[in-house]
Amino acid sequence: MSRTHTSFIPADQIDAVADWNFSPVDQASLRFAAKVKAQAEAAERAHSQAAHQAGYNEGYAAGFEQGHAKATIEGQQQISEFVATQGAEAAATFLRLFESAQTQLQDAEQALAKGALELACELARQVLRHELATNPNALQPVVREALNMLASDSKAALVRLNPLDVDVFSGVLEKEFTNLALTLLPDPAVSRGGCLVESAGTVVDGTVERRWQRAVAGLGLESDWEAHGDVH
Q1: Does residue 13 register a pLDDT over 90?
Q2: Each residue of 132-156: pLDDT tens digit?
């Protein structure tokens, strides 16, 4: 049979009574709750910042892509406009400059070539003058050619020569052209090395001046045999 125990304490056995203080427990609970709240708020702020940063990055990327595409289109348009306007003008200007430079170069080359020909002709003229003055035999082929140009039925011919050349060729020509009645006529108007052959109304001009003009004309030049300043 169980026995009942009573926990009742008589009042005369209690010295003093004091209220139980729960403040340490309450403060710990409050601090824990505050910490949890702070962590929650920090997590919320971090999430908000992450969401904001993600939105910023997404917006920046989209804006950069749009801006890049726009810049590319505008750049292509500017290049096309430049090629169509300023580029075409620059190309035309360059082409004109190139053509002008090419023309000037051609003119310079022609002037140089002409100068070289003129110099060569002047040297040839001096050499021929010296040859005709020192070698009378140089006239013989000229007279022979002029006489051969006469008609085959010609029986007589008048040959005008410089007085200094008549004495040299009088005997030679009479022996070579026995079929012609040759008359050698001294003519101071005929330069040494030249001749004029007349027969039956035909005149063959074998003067040095005429032969020289034909020679230089074949080179595209005009040059007189008697140049200005020549000393005879």
Answers
A1: no
A2: 777 767 888 888 888 888 866 778 8
Kindly report the CATH number that applies to the domain delimited by 137-217: 3.30.2320.30
For the stretch 155-174, pLDDT in tens is 888 999 999 888 887 777 87
Cβ pair 190, 162 in contact under 8 A: yes
